[in-house]
Design a protein that fits this description.
Elements: E1 23-26, E2 32-38, E3 41-53, E4 60-64, E5 70-75, E6 83-86, E7 94-98, E8 101-105, E9 118-119, E10 124-127, H1 138-163, H2 167-188, H3 194-197, H4 199-218, H5 224-240
Antiparallel strand pairs: 1-2, 1-10, 2-3, 3-4, 3-5, 3-9, 5-6, 6-7, 7-8, 8-10
């Protein structure tokens, strides 16, 4: 990784303009999406899905999704990032807006457009294509990631200190932080030319820094099971007083 010269970086949550008018490709070379605006509203101008042909085993398929532009619905998010869901019955996936990219989640469900005979996995990073990455920017990207990593570590330490007296919350944020690197590796391992540039890892590390900053500013919102554990622990503390 490039040297982490300079101060740590706390990235700002990217606005929708960071993705408008750009062709974003899943893993830098697969399915593609393009966004536009209709007045103040963000919409999907074009969506192309690349996946597995269900009629011919082992072959790839490509589907130009009809009915564009597709509407987007804003969703609540605890990550500090802007989140949308695509209004598309065959595959209503959700994404967070990153810097010139989107991070798609779909609970492991594949997209299967009706009568297309094609199954495509939308999950992962959709961003810059391999042929758009300037070879001269490789070292710069690695250095930027190193600086953002500084922010992730320092913000996590501050978040830990803020919650160190709450065992369940403390354990939750430690587990979440410990799993970040392996999750990032899993998402980015198939991104085009990732070993050379680390583009995917940079975008996800920026998103992690923003998420930690949001937790530090507004508090840690726990999943239901963990929240119940915290409530039970607090009840025990009150009973001992």
């Amino acid at each position: 990784m490039g040297a982490a010269a300079g101060p740590a970086i706390m990235p700002k949550a990217p606005a929708e303009d960071a993705i408008v008018g750009k062709i974003l490709k899943r893993d830098g070379e697969g399915s593609a999406i393009e966004f536009s605006r209709a007045g103040a509203d963000l919409q999907v101008a074009k969506l192309t899905l690349v996946g597995d042909d269900l009629r011919r085993s082992g072959e790839a398929c490509r589907v130009e999704v009809a009915g564009t532009p597709l509407k987007l619905t804003a969703r609540q998010s605890d990550t500090g990032l802007r989140r949308y869901q695509i209004v598309f019955p065959a595959c209503a996936f959700t994404f967070d807006v990153l810097d010139g990219a989107i991070l798609v989640t779909n609970e492991g469900k594949a997209c299967e457009p009706k009568d297309a005979g094609c199954r495509a996995d939308p999950e992962g990073l959709w961003g810059m294509s391999a042929d758009e990455i300037d070879p001269k920017k490789g070292e710069e990207m690695l250095g930027a990631r190193a600086r953002v990593e500084k922010t992730v570590r320092s913000t996590f330490r501050a978040l830990y200190d803020q919650n160190k007296k709450e065992k369940a919350i403390r354990n939750f944020i430690v587990k979440e932080q410990a799993g970040f690197s392996s999750w990032r590796e899993e998402v980015c391992r198939s991104y085009a030319r990732e070993p050379d540039f680390g583009y995917c890892a940079l975008r996800l590390t920026e998103a992690r820094a923003i998420a930690l900053g949001a937790q530090l500013a507004t508090g840690v919102k726990l999943p239901p099971g963990v929240a119940e554990e915290v409530a039970a622990e607090n009840t025990k503390k009150d009973a001992k007083k």
